Structure formats: C-alpha cells, structure tokens
Amino acid sequence: MKKYSILLLLVLISGKAFGQDRNIVMPEQPTEIYNIEEKDNGYWCAFETGGGSTTMDNMKNVAMVAASFTNGYRFNQFLKVGAGIGVLYYPNNKNVRNSANHFSIPIFLNVRGNALPDDTRMTVPFWSVNVGTSVSDGFFFTPAVGLRIGEKRSAFLISVAYTLRHLDSYPENINNYSGALLKLGYEF
After folding, report:
1. Which domain holds residue 84?
2. Within a domain: residue 156?
3. What are the tens digits of pLDDT across the range 6-22?
4. What pLDDT, in 10s, does the model give residues 72-109?
5. By C-alpha distance, which of 132, 89, 126, 138 is closest to 110?
C-alpha cells in the first residue's frame, strides 16, 4: 500500500509540474479575402448565341444564326472592353448573298456595361456594341440591349440587337443590310 501511495504522490506532483500555463497565440483572421466573384475589375468572358434575319423592305431577306465568344477586361460593372470571334451561318443563302458559302467568321471589338448597379439586384439591364468585320462579308455594326440575370461575375444574358452588315448580295448588288437578332448567352 505504501508503494501505491508513493506512486500516487509522484503522479500528482509530476502532473502539477507539467501543467504549465501556456499562452497559445493564434494567427489573426485575414482582413480581406480575395474572391474573384466580388471583384469589380479583371478578366471577363462571354459566350452568346442567337438568330435573326435581315429586315429589308421589298427585297429578299437572309436569315442568320450566330455564335460568338468574347473576352476582355472589366474596368467596373459599367464598362467592359473585349475582343471576340464567332461563326455566322446563313441557312437560306441561295439567291441572296453573292457567295455559295453559307458561313462567315465575324471578328470584332466589344464594349459593354450595365445600365444600373448590380450590387443589390439579380436582374440588371445592360448595353453592348460589336464593331468588326466578317470574313467573306465585310464590316458590321451591332448594338444590343438586354438583361443580365444572375450574380456579379456569373450571369445569363438575353438581348435584342440591331445589326448593320455589309453583304455582297446577288442580284440586286445592295451592299448594306440591316437586321434584328435575338441573343442568349452566359457571362462570367
């Protein structure tokens, strides 16, 4: 019994010796966490697809189906500048364009921005302007207005656009066609 009492006494003394008061310093919480979804500037990208038709009176009109990819720099939510490339398909090309090729490749500059701040809204009106050239067609100018639906850096797009295009047409030899497009897309 004497052995157990001495052993118990040693355990209690050693427990007190090792039970020191330690001050553990935890690292401080970061003051700012980098989150690209909340940044107002930086890289942005959009993919859009849509269709429409030229709208010329007393003339043969040509339908268009388009897809485009645009990327660039976002200065803030009201101004984004980028460059894009796409593909344009004319399903009823026959007897309208002076080309047997149904495809064209647009290369363009894009400027766009929100019409209202998107800090507290899930749906925001936006504007967009494409200016460029289509391989095998020529110059085009396409302003658009629409709605962004979603987060600040991740939103679905729906827009209505007017397009003024240079088309080498046949047989009227009219060079400038105007038209309307409905576009759907995604932007991040």
Report:
1. 36-187
2. yes
3. 777 777 776 655 555 66
4. 999 988 999 999 999 998 887 666 666 677 888 999 99
5. 132
